[in-house]
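Entry 14. Structure prediction run on the chain below.
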Amino acid sequence: MNYCFTPIKILLLLSMCVYALSGCASFDYPAPLVERTDSVIAQELSEVSQSITSPVHLLGQGDEALLARLAMISHARYSIDIQVYIFKADRSGATILAALLQAAERGVKVRLLLDDFGTGQQDQRFASLNSHPNITVKLFNPSQLRQLPLTSILFDFSLKSRRMHNKLMISDQQFAILGGRNIGDMYFDSATTANFHDLDIILSDKAAQPLTRSFELYWQHPLAVAMADINTAKNAAGWQALAAELAATKPSSAELAAIASYYQLTLAPLSTAAAVTTHIVVDHPDKLLHDANKTTAHLVPVMQQILQDVQHSALIVSPYFVPNTTLYHQLSQWVAAGAEVEVLTNSLAATDVMAVHAGYAPWRERLLSAGIQLWEFKPDPAQKQPSHSILGSSRASLHAKTFVFDQRYVFIGSLNLDPRSVNLNTELGIILDAPSLAQAITTGIKQQLKSTAYQLSYTADAKQCQLQWLEWDPEADQVKQHYCHDPQVKSWQRWFTEFLSLLPIQNQL
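Output returned:
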């Protein structure tokens, strides 16, 4: 820990003292944060990271993704487990909370594991939810000082800057959803402003069981702290007041009919659908306690073992894409060996994190020079995509994390190709050995690239702008316009991004 007290830290420390003297809520971890041995980590991961066969169903549209979750909750009989990075206090979040309370009233045991930073200081709301006898809420890696949560990053940066980024939902150990979606309007295409487009996948039976073990690995970890230990105020009837508050989000009769229909037509038949080979990959929660260079608890080495030799093609969809030298050489080697490598990431106009774009931007010329094809997702209010599109709707920022290799292997999960996902946060995903699905996803993406993204081009000719963004007319199949700088952004955004790219923050992106 760094004990160098700058003036800002001193002011924050004084603020903490004021809060402490005024009765500021804080807590201690119930169990010590002791790292497991490598052998224990390997054993625990082996119980989760395994090859199985399971029927699958893709969730490419936000409205269906919400419908699937509500159908799983409404038909659960025994248990519901949810692990998520962000849980918004908006209509979608309220709708899911109301459904969980209804399930708990039926006798279903509900467990909710939330990353602390993603809850948006909703302690009272989740404490009220936790007061129901059939619901237990835990916060992962919580800040000890509840009124000033960001101060913990300054005083324990190595741990508090690392987050649980996993997204997982399991009902009755029968159905599971994992992927890139958090819980909130913007992830279900229902926000009034910008939406995130994402991709989830539903798995059945055999996959749900090891995924439950993955959930248990985090649920039982010392970094997962019970809401009752964080908010110790006793309010046995808190859940009833919360239920009354959420009554306005009660589904209409038409929505209830849609939920029931979705279960009967999509979820129930899934158990008997054709199965594909899947391999679950997950970071061990001890990853947050390790030095970033120690990869024992990491999922990326497992992925590399499964995907050792790319021979023909690699299609990478990653909203936050920040290469390093290792990734650059790997992609370059694939191209040199004759493989086609394409990357789709957010443009500066579409990204919601300018600092991440600043980490990616300096690599563009090198990637293009090595033969790697780059596409940048563009926000376009006038554009609508077909309902089956996995590239999402208009005004969307790309958020799906999907990789397709040799039109055979498909990765879907929470992992971005950036240093934060690879080295710092914890992640979860699956690799499907499913050629027909891989080919369908590849075809679907490529058919829409020219209408949803800018194609980047690089030339060494100093007489023209060397880096160009090509905007295609997909109907005429020709370039209709080119730009010599990031399109659809203001000058200050480009300048600020260039400034951020000079800062030594790449390992944190």
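DSSP finds 18 helices and 21 strands in the chain.
Filed with the rest of this week's runs.
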